[in-house]
Amino acid sequence: MPMPASISPPGSPPSPTMSVDSIHGHNTLRLNSPLQLDQLRRIKVMIVDDNSINLSILSRMLEKHFTDIVQLTVITTSGVEALQRLASEEFDLILMDIDMPVLTGVQTTIAIRQNTSESPILEHNQNVAIIAVTTSDGAEQRELYRQVGMSDCVSKPIDPSKLRSAIEGAMKASG
Amino acid sequence: MLGRRQTRRMYEGGDCGTAIKENNKKRVSGAETPINNIKGNEEPEVVDKGAETEPETDVEDFEDNGIIDHTTFDQLLEMDDEEDHEFSRSLVWNYFEQAEKTFEDMDEAMEKLDFPDLSRLGHFLKGSSAALGLTKVKESCEKLQHYGNRKDAAGVESITNDEAETLIRALLAQMRREYNEAESYLKVFYDGQE
Questions:
Q1: Could you give the CA distance from residue B165 to residue B167 in angstroms, rounded to a whole number?
Q2: B97-130 pLDDT, tens per residue?
Q3: Which residues 13-52 in chain A show a CB within 8 A of chain B?
Q4: Residues of chain B neighbouring A47 (CB-CB closer than 8 A)
Q5: Which of A53, A97, A159 minimises the CB distance to B95?
Q6: Looking at residues A82-110, what average pLDDT do you find?
């Protein structure tokens, strides 16, 4: 017996308690797997980069090429600012520059994972998916990013297809 | 999307040709004569201040010098709205401002021989240069990043402070020429869009 269909409008979280068996006698969209449900829920992304040019490019790229995945993008220009936002807003993904003054991307990631910021970040954000976006993308550096808790590294200049793969992989891994 | 082939066609004759000539009246200024025979590194470019440089009137001359990585630059153009190039144009002009400010900061850091700051500034400008596809500027920024860390151009072997100072002085002049070349190309490109 097929499972009752659940339908969630784009942009809103899935509602497993809602189900519609049929509409006007036609078959409804059948979404049985959690992954399919998640595909309707777009994510909230934070971009962290101290370079305004890079911020403009990446936010525009998400706006133009990732509307199927990204619901909302927030930009911050430092690790300190990122931690402040994470104390009050929930995010699904952080695209993190590495070489920034005061707090590097690695230091910011460690502060998130260990929740060592002056203002404690929201519990949800402690395990937020983080992808490094950087020109510092050698093998040793990638290993360091992995060790501190980043799920992937995308090289600058950004190839949209590689960014998409990294985001999909990160979201799958974070469940 | 305007790629290499399309940008080349735009500059074949007509008003665009005039725009190219006017923009290229601005000569790349001469710079310090770099020092040769620096241990363990390639010789920097030799610049003859007295030599006349032929103005480039054909966009192909720009392209042959590898100023722009068109794959990257075309990706930026793809993010423009169909009707205009306002996004990429404003981005490029913001980059010009950023680069000019960064060069000023580099000059100040050089006066103080603040190598860590020079390295940081090199890395900073490398990122945005790479994002716009400005290949030569990006590569020079990467060298500055390494020299500022007292490493060779590849970032592997250590160099002395004196060597770093010599290399950086020559590199800053070279970087400025490369930036001027890229700036000229981009201004010609966007002038042709109007």
A1: 6
A2: 999 999 999 999 999 999 999 999 999 999 999 9
A3: 50-52
A4: none
A5: A53
A6: 96
Q: Is residue A78 in a domain?
A: yes
- Residue B79 sits at the chain A interface (C-beta within 8 Å): yes
CB contact under 8 A, B128 and A53: yes
Question: Within 13 Å of residue B8, how many CA atoms lie on the same side as its CB?
Answer: 9
Point out which residues pair with A72 in neighbouring strands.
Answer: A44
CATH assignment of the domain containing A68: 3.40.50.2300
Residues in chain B: 194
**Residue-level pLDDT at B194:** 66
The reply to whether ipTM tops 0.90 is no
Task: State the Cα angle at A82 between A76 and A88, rounded to 5°.
Answer: 115
Asked if residue A19 belongs to a domain, the reply is no
Q: Is A164 exposed, middle or buried (0-12, 13-18, 19+ CB in 10 A)?
A: middle
CB spacing of A160 vs B72 below 8 angstroms:
no
CB contact under 8 A, B76 and A53: no
Distance of CA B133 to the CA centre of its chain: 10
Domain assignment present for residue A82? The answer is yes
Task: Evaluate whether B152 touches B146 at the Cβ level (below 8 Å).
Answer: yes
Considering only CB atoms, A99 lies closest to which of B75, B123, B128, namely B123
Total domains present in chain A: 1
Contact indicator for B159, B61 with CB cutoff of 8 Å:
no
d(CA A147, CA A153): 12
The residue with tokens 């160099």 is B159
Domain span at residue A90 reads 35-173
Residue A74 lies in a domain: yes
Mean per-residue pLDDT of chain A: 83
